[in-house]
Design a protein that fits this description.
Blueprint: E1 29-39, E2 42-46, E3 56-62, E4 73-76, H1 79-87, H2 101-110, H3 117-130, H4 142-145
The structure holds zinc ion (ZN).
């Protein structure tokens, strides 16, 4: 059964790796091959062999590895649900801000460590990534050269 794809809501980048969703969705958003039906015991899932007309169709949003993504997959009981789950974002806790080189240097000074600016930038990015803090994609290096700029 071919479904025409209605107008889609805007798709956010991957919630795990931030990889942008490609324009051509054929490898990204598609039915996962599962179906479901409500029964007296709740929602029951099964494969295509057991499916019949009127069953719900499961869909998946995929961060496709061959297109540079991380391979993450989010399933929904409909295309709309898969998209809604994909697009759901937790808000960062209040007061959470990207790290600055200055702050990292302070911490490293506590540990009596000294690193080059390149090492500092790499470490800053790794720490931000590990904590889910978004890093500016291209100008990440600028924080090394923006000494003297007051970020408040
Ligand atoms: Zn991803």
């Amino acid at each position: 059964m071919t479904q025409s794809i209605p107008q889609l809501p805007e798709l956010q980048p991957c919630p795990f790796c931030n990889h942008p969703v490609p324009k051509d969705l054929s490898d990204t958003l598609y039915p996962s091959g599962g179906y479901w039906r409500e029964s007296e015991f709740g929602r029951h899932y099964f494969g295509i062999k057991e499916s019949r007309e009127g069953d719900g169709e499961c869909w998946g949003m995929n961060c496709t590895q061959c297109m540079g993504g991380c391979g993450a997959r989010i399933n929904g009981d409909s295309m709309e649900e898969a998209i809604a789950k994909w697009n759901t974002r937790a808000s960062p806790p209040r007061g959470m801000t990207p790290l600055t080189v200055t702050r990292i240097k302070e911490v490293l000074a506590d540990w009596e460590m000294e690193l080059t600016d390149t090492e500092l930038t790499l470490i800053t990015r790794d720490i931000e990534r590990a904590h889910g803090i978004p890093t500016p994609p291209e100008n990440g290096d600028s924080r090394v050269s923006d000494k003297g700029v007051d970020h408040g």
